[in-house]
Amino acid sequence: MKKVFIINGHQYYPFAEGKLNKALVDRASDLLGGADFEIKTTATQEDYNVEEELEKFLWADVVLFQTPLNWMGVTWSFKKYIDEVLTAGMMGTLSQGDGRSKEEPKKNYGLAGLLKGKYMISVTANAPKEAFNNPEEKFFDSKSEDDLLLPMHLNFKWFGLEPLKTFFAYDVMKNPEIENDFIRFDKHIKEELIAKA
Predict the structure, then answer these.
(1) I need a labelling partner for 57 at 20 to 30 A (CA). Which of 29, 134, 146, 161 fits?
(2) What pLDDT is attached to residue 16?
(3) pTM of the model
């Protein structure tokens, strides 16, 4: 039986209560549970125990990270989670330091991960799809969604996890298409996570 650890990185704001991110976490849990996955979850804005969180990473075959795009990155509650949990795992639990050795101090930076699973990032964003990969849109200046998420991809790579395709729900505040997002998300979970995990 495959094991998935789902992290909800939402942070509450009066204008963004977290309903969509929670709905996506719930949908993923239902789909994965129906496909005989074991599931553990964490919401980063709630209380957690660092040692228990490290055990979830060690336990999981797949980590699914659900987050809103927050100032072109992750929320402060998830950044706090990274600083507390992933830092605690950096020196022997999730990785062996930074990958370099005394013999080769200039090589292999970031390549000491001890995990062998996969990860998937799922994002809710106010940006429209047309803002990405588009030379005519000057803000992202032709950058892709995964270009924007590069720091998160590197964090997961640091610990040895392999990426699955990223999911984006676009324009969720100004021009939402939530029912279509749910259809696309369900398909994405089935094709990327259930079929490939």
Answers:
(1) 146
(2) 66
(3) 0.94
